[in-house]
Amino acid sequence: FLGKMASRQITDDQLKELTIKGVDTRQGREIGRGAYGKVFTVKYQGSPCAAKEVHALLLDGVSTEEKRAVKNGFIRECYQSSRIRHPNIVQFMGIYYPLDYPSEQAGLPIMVMELLDTNVTAFVENNKSKIPVQTKISI
What we know:
- The protein has helices spanning 2-7, 12-18, 64-82, 120-126, 133-138; strands spanning 23-24, 30-33, 37-44, 47-54, 92-96, 110-114.
- The chain is an alpha+beta fold.
- It is built from 5 helices and 6 strands.
- It is globular, with a radius of gyration of 16 Å.
- Strands 1, 2, 3, 4, 5 and 6 form a 6-stranded antiparallel beta sheet that branches.
- 32% of the residues lie in helices and 23% in strands.
């Protein structure tokens, strides 16, 4: 299923189903960063959550086609995340369109997810003896 979705365009109706309102991004702190984006804390319906956004650098000074490719890739990731339900996978809450985004990020949502009390690195460090070597290598 996910392989088929990677090549299909997400419809406006599918996107609308994922959109949430009332996300408070004020006073959020950064909790992670990677090559593609960063993760920071937000509040949604009064609960602390994590939010992922694409780095503005990936959108700055690139062609319209490249921006569209980045946006479509991120939206596909959001859509695929919305379809997965498993106790060992972070729960997807929805996508949110901030009104105060810089112009290069305008039109790009942030992905709102469950906030965990740890991260993969800390979990592995704290559970070294419980995690099989092969699993550690694959992480």
